[in-house]
């Protein structure tokens, strides 16, 4: 079987970039990305590809090349499902905010809706591909819905988790470490797996395309994210010990990273990891482990989250303590709001939690982020539901110019590692601030020596 038409449900951070690259690399395949969110689709279709709704380096060029040729963005979900041989599900699976498993389990309502819609529309056999990160054994639920509510056609469910990291999505998609495809270990399952292998083989060498059973594939994605997040929590745990002992966490990270068994990546101490995956996936893992009665396994992984929450709180506490135990009515400027550089995504960004703590202490927060829009900052804080929306609006101001954001501030906190922050005229910023002028570098990206010589009181993570 050959895939000639792909439909992707969900035009978000995963679906958008992934489909754009598939379309670019497979001009013979028609790729249609659909979403219920009309504005989002309108933005993807903006004639100027610099205005597409997701910021990723290189993405606008890929979209410019493929859009209108074999890449389409549409709100006509049913038509796209009907026409495609392969349907990717890339909808969001946030942590449940209600009912059983609240705060832990993945909310699968959007997935179920997709499955029901596919079942209703499909009049020919389809391959359904789980692209969103899903708890292990979700494929079983999808299959049951498809088989029981469908029109008698055959469905093959594949798990094909996305390993791209935001901020590097395009290069990750073009040169993946591996592609993972899980499917049924039946002749029909193998046929479906091979059809998807052939799609990726247009630009990825076959030895990097790994095939497994569905459950291994689903669990591998959660495992990969848990291992990566664990490295960050481990180095962050060491960062506090470094601060107490006179060790420097960057030196420690370099020293251990040269051990080939450990490796050098993902050892940057920070104010804490954010993003849509790590916390959600680990909570999922914890929930799944608990549901099988594996309490020790659950506790082990939960500690990664506990450490991350502690690291964020530790950062805000440090700001308060250093500013003479009070930040009431003091202006604190955040440089960065996104959860990492080179993305406009703010989901679970440490900045949100640090701001929330400081607003509780009655600080006034000014924010500058090169890619995050003003209303996003307020809606992120409102989403926490800690206080009235009007109170957040009174406490937080956002700026389009970093120098204006820093004017008159008592302290600057670096929350995202945007490259441009290292290139600022720090003398000019110092001159415009209240004295003593403090910097809390939550990403360890600034030049400590230079800042100290200007007169800043410089604080980093882990030294
Ligand atoms: C992650 C996984 O890397 C990716 O494979 C998976 O598909 C989705 O989840 P993402 O969340 O986009 O990707 O970004 P990632 O680069 O992993 O960073 C996550 C968070 O960890 C960010 O807040 C980042 O700033 C932080 N981080 C990362 C550190 O604090 N220190 C590090 O050394 C690395
Ligand atoms: P991710 O990071 O997983 O891509 P996003 O929230 O960026 O998450 O994107 C998920 C997208 O899926 C959103 O744009 C949302 O509107 C869309 N979506 C959710 N449910 C459905 C559905 N049933 N049909 C179509 N689109 C959906």
Textual characterization of the structure:
Helix content is 45%, strand content 14%. By secondary structure, it is α/β, with parallel strands linked by helices. The strands form 3 sheets. The protein has a 6-stranded parallel β-sheet with strand order 3-2-1-4-5-6, with helices on both faces. A 6-stranded parallel β-sheet has the order 11-10-9-12-13-14, sandwiched between helices. Strands 7-8 form a two-stranded parallel ribbon. The longest helix has 32 residues, at 214-245. It starts with a strand and ends with a strand. The mean pLDDT is 96. The chain binds uridine-5'-diphosphate-xylopyranose and adenosine-5'-diphosphate. The site of uridine-5'-diphosphate-xylopyranose has 19 residues, from helix 9.
User: Strand share of the residues?
Assistant: 5-15%
Low-confidence region ranges: none
Shape designation: globular
Mean pLDDT: 96
Task: Describe the main β-sheet briefly.
Answer: 6 strands, parallel
- How many DSSP H or I helices? 18
Attached small molecules: uridine-5'-diphosphate-xylopyranose, adenosine-5'-diphosphate
Oligomer: single chain
In which range does the helix fraction lie? Answer: 40-55%
Beta strands, count? 14
Strand order in the largest sheet = 3-2-1-4-5-6
Please give the radius of gyration in angstroms.
Answer: 23 Å
Distance N to C terminus:
58 Å
